[in-house]
């Protein structure tokens, strides 16, 4: 079926639809060479239509996520592989998208879409059938943006995973599975609690440390109760903020955030540690960053920056055991030990400080 992506500035990109279903959301692009499993399973992509910049998707099929509906609002790819080759493959990407009723536009010029967003910034768009009336397209584009994205993706009940002497409580703002994998692979016992959990409820679990997780959307749309909880937890236990959690901690401690022109999304973002000069290639997904100018007057200091645009990638509190990172700690613990900031957080937990 013929389909199209229509952006709010009137730009149109034609392709084909996997199935007849519409999508509306912020159109962004992901620069990794693969990783579509990670993109589909990441709650931080909730409310977004993701354009994959690498031309071929689906070449290893679907190894997992078979029963899980993707979080993405829509998926845009250049070439959809119909004959995947992997010894663990269970089904094709196309069949998975059909089964989960996920809007997908393929055989589309993803380079043109990416170039347009880079030049003009992220904007809302819709994936629709090619013959949809313009009046109906306009009606979709004017739908109000969803702002309670964290509420939609957070766990409804607390649960525990992993085993270990270190007990990490994760405040779930939309935690990525890879973050939980990392914590377990490091040897932690992990308790995941809803975004509605209070500071007293979290401290009653007697954690060695607390992680404020990644999640979708604008940090300023996160409930004021969540920000108040993070502020109340500050200094009580070692704390690590990841992605959205990094931004929420900054807001809770008096800093501000701002939106980037087109954000950072991909597994190839260069992050420089200011103390030792080392550059790490990190996995990231966000539209918002901590405004460095707003750190004046706070106790937060910058530890790492993005090499491409000099934006803040990591923070540390000058007197409290609080660390934040804009990127994801990956499941490979041998690599993650070199992330410096994560290592400092972990050392404090192991010491019981």
Topology:
Blueprint: E1 2-7, E2 12-17, E3 23-30, H1 36-41, E4 48-52, E5 56-57, E6 74-76, E7 79-80, H2 93-99, E8 104-106, H3 110-120, E9 123-129, H4 134-141, H5 149-153, E10 159-161, E11 166-171, H6 177-185, E12 188-193, H7 199-203, E13 209-212, H8 224-233, E14 239-242, H9 244-252, E15 257-273, E16 279-290, E17 300-306, E18 312-317, E19 322-325, H10 333-336, H11 341-351
Parallel strand pairs: 3-4, 4-6, 5-7, 6-8, 11-12, 11-13, 13-14, 14-19
Antiparallel strand pairs: 1-2, 1-9, 2-8, 3-9, 10-12, 15-16, 15-17, 17-18, 18-19
Helix pairs in contact: 8-9
Description:
The protein is α/β, with parallel strands linked by helices and 353 residues long. The protein has two domains: 2-141, Glucose Oxidase, domain 1; 149-351, Class I glutamine amidotransferase (GATase) domain (Rossmann fold), CATH 3.40.50. The protein is built from eleven helices and 19 strands. The strands form three sheets. The protein has a ten-stranded mixed sheet, sandwiched between helices. Strands 1-2-8-6-4-3-9 form a seven-stranded mixed beta barrel. Strand 3 (23-30), helix 1 (36-41) and strand 4 form a beta-alpha-beta unit. Helix 8 (224-233) crosses helix 9. The mean pLDDT is 92.
């Amino acid at each position: 079926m013929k389909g199209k992506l229509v952006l709010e500035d009137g730009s149109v990109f034609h392709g084909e639809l996997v199935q007849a279903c519409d999508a509306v959301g912020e159109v962004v692009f992901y620069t990794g060479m693969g990783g579509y499993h990670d993109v589909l399973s990441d709650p931080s992509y909730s409310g977004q239509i993701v354009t994959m910049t690498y031309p071929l998707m689906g070449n290893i099929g679907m190894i997992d996520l078979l029963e899980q509906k993707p979080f993405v609002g829509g998926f845009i790819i250049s070439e959809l592989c119909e004959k995947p080759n992997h010894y663990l493959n269970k089904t094709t990407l196309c069949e998975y998208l059909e089964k989960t009723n996920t809007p997908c536009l393929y055989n589309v010029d993803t380079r043109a879409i990416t170039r347009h967003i880079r030049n003009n910034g992220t904007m809302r768009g819709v994936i629709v059938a090619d013959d949809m009336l313009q009046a109906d397209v306009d009606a979709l584009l004017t739908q109000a943006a969803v702002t309670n994205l964290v509420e939609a993706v957070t766990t409804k009940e607390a649960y525990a995973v992993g085993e270990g002497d270190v007990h990490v409580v994760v405040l779930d703002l939309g935690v990525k599975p890879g973050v939980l994998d990392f914590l377990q692979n490091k040897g932690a016992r992990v308790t995941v609690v809803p975004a509605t959990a209070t500071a007293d409820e979290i401290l009653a679990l007697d954690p060695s440390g607390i992680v404020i997780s990644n999640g979708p959307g604008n940090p300023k749309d996160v409930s004021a109760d969540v920000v108040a909880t993070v502020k109340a937890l500050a200094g009580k236990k070692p704390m690590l903020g990841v992605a959205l959690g990094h931004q929420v901690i900054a807001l809770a401690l008096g800093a501000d955030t701002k939106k980037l022109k087109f954000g950072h999304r991909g597994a190839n973002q260069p992050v420089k540690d200011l103390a030792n000069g080392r550059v790490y290639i990190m996995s990231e997904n966000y539209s918002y960053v901590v405004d460095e100018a707003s750190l004046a007057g706070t106790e937060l200091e910058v530890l790492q920056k993005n090499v491409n645009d000099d934006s803040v990638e990591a923070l540390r509190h000058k007197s409290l055991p609080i660390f934040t990172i804009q990127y994801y700690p990956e499941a490979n613990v041998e690599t993650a030990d070199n992330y410096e900031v994560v290592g400092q957080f972990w050392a404090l937990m192991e010491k019981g400080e």
